[in-house]
Amino acid sequence: MSKSTLAEENTGKKSGKKRWFAAGAVVLALVISAAVFLLYENYRVYGECYVEAGVEVTVQDFLRRADGQAFFAEGSDSVNSAVPGDYHLKIKTGVFTHNAILHIADTIPPTGEAVKVNLELGEECGAEAFVGQITDATAVAVSYAQNPEFSKAGEQEVRILLTDAGGNRTELASELFISLVAEELTVEAGSAAPPLKDFVIGGKNASFITNINNFDYTVPAKREVKLLVDGGEYTTMLEIVDTVPPRLQMKDVRSFTKVSRKPEDFVETVEDVTEVSLSFQEEPDILSPGEKTVSVVATDKGGNETVKEAKLTLEVDMEPPVIEGVADLTVYEGEAIAYKRNVTVTDNCPEKLDLTVDNSAVNLSMAGEYPITYIARDASGNETTAEATVIVKEQLYDINEVYALADAVLEKILTPEMTPLEKAKAIYQYNIYNIAYINHSEKGNWVRAAYEGLADKKGDCYVYACTAKVLLDRAGIRNMDIIKIPTRRSHYWNLVDLGEGWYHFDTTPRSDHPTIFMWTEAQLMEYSGRHYGSHNYDHSLYPEVN
User: Which phi and psi (to 5°) does residue 449 adopt?
Assistant: First the structure.
């Protein structure tokens, strides 16, 4: 073999070794990369997670680094955080699915609120009745620590156990009261008072503390009843209920269109122990003629309802009202008129029949003749009018006529043997009891005002003062007119001197009914001060008052 051939052979061998080394390096690099990749992927997920029952668990709780694309894969156990235990989960993150275990533990005992229970003798209940507001992340079983004595009357302590799914326990102390009387008794409205035996369940000696015969058994209500049983006081409730609906007897109605109707119009009789209200189930159509069905709802105090039907037959009313008794009227100036006196209106449909008087042209304070119009209108709008005249005559007031009226009054109320004080008192009382108060009168003519007080027997403070003036004058009693300092409202009264000086004398009635008879200055000013200056006057214009 030549040297050149040997050299070529050696060169080929070396080249082959280099290829094997290069391939091995590549494989090794791939193996190492795969191992690192697998190690990285496995490192991304926690293999186990421990939580307290009731805590919400998400896939992020198992990841070392957040991955918004991760999720619990198919084959994972269904997790219920309220049930302690181990849950096997499959977590998909990246290209791999990882196995993990969720451990749910319950280490916190339950809590609850003790509830007092009242039972009647002979009744029993479960432990759950003694507990309210139970709080725990897991299901809680409620049981008696020791069974109560349901056959024993009176109060006793009851111990209750709360046990959750983790085996944690809480013991509560509650109370049980066993009553010898019914907790509540129900009677129908209209019944008689129930007997004692209906209230008492056990015991040897029982009596009422509350007098239940005083209850109104026609009104639904709850009434507290106290009883004495075997020396112990018990409280129960008597409930009066109304469960029986009203009984109705209906009647049909014939009428005219546009005449409004009430439910009562269609009811002949209604019977019920309690008060009954009536209403329409639907408002009837009263605008169009014809026969209609009307439904009336009767509702009693217990809320019971009865619905019954009746017929409403309507026709159109074309007949106008008839006015009778219209005549001319004559009055004196200042007098009032009863325009409708002796005037009657009739119609074939008397419902909503209306009579008005147009007296806008009349002036009762000035003599003259004035037209008036009577207008009668029925429910359908048919109208009738009638005309008349008001004749207002001038009112002439004669002082002698007023004196005659005053003398006639004094003859009835005074006797010769009366003292001046007694005469003044009689005049005061006459004004108080015989003149009706109205809040206006014509001022400036005391003779007219006195006439109105004596003849018409009505007027305001000016009329009262002027009437008192003429009566005092004719009785021989010294007197003087007095007026309040002018304000928004004026007021008039009298001063009287019976021989011992001046006193205040006010016969005008007031809302608080004072008797301002022979009052001193101090009395009147004290009263005036309490009543917004009711009698303030200019003292410089009058003599000094006692």
Answer: -60, -40
112-132: string of b/e by CB count within 10 Å (b at 16+)? bebeebebbbeeeeebebbbe
Structural contact between residues 357 and 386, judged by C-beta atoms closer than 8 angstroms: no
Helix H, strand E, coil C: the string for 39-69 is: HHHHHCECCEEEEECCCCCCHHHHECCCCCC
pLDDT digits (tens, 9 = 90+) for 249-289: 999 999 999 999 999 999 999 999 999 999 999 999 999 99
Provide the residue type at 39 as one letter: L
Beta strands in 130-205, from DSSP E residues, in sequence order? 131-135, 140-144, 154-164, 169-179, 184-188
Query: What radius of gyration, in Å, describes the C-alpha atoms of the chain?
Result: 53
As a whole number of angstroms, the distance between CA 533 and CA 493 comes to 14
Query: Which tokens is 210 given?
Result: 């509350």
User: Strands 492-497, 478-483: parallel, antiparallel or unpaired by DSSP?
Assistant: antiparallel
pLDDT of residue 32: 53
Q: Tell me the C-alpha distance between 480 and 459, whole Å.
A: 20
Find where tokens 């070794």 sit: 17
Match 């022979």 to its residue by tokens.
518
SS (H, E, C) 404-466: HHHHHHHHHHCCCCCCHHHHHHHHHHHHHHHCEECCCCCCCCHHHHHHHHHHHCEECHHHHHH
What is the Cα 86 distance to its own chain's centre? Answer: 59
Compute the Cα dihedral for 287, 291, 292, 294 and give only its sign.
positive
Here the tokens at position 169 are: 């326990």
Two tokens, residue 190: 């209209």
Cα–Cα dist 248/266, whole Å: 10
**Which residue ranges of the chain lie beneath pLDDT 70?**
1-42
Per-residue pLDDT tens digits for 40-95: 555 789 999 999 999 999 999 999 999 999 999 999 999 999 999 999 999 999 88
Residue with tokens 């010898």: 180
